[in-house]
Amino acid sequence: MLIAPEQRLLDAALDTASRLPADGTYLNTVASAVMDIHGGIYTGVNVGHFTGGPCAELVALGVAAAAGAGPIALIVAAGDEDRGVMPPCGRCRQVLLDQQPDCRVIVPDGDGDGDGASSVPARELLPYPSPHPDANPPRLLRFNARHWDNVVDGVKTATTRFNDPTLPGSATFLFEFDDRYRSLPGVVESVEHVRFADITDAQAALEGCTADELRTALRTYYYPEIVDDDIVDFVRFRVVERG
Question: Is 149 helix (H, G, I), strand (E, B) or coil?
Answer without folding.
Answer: helix
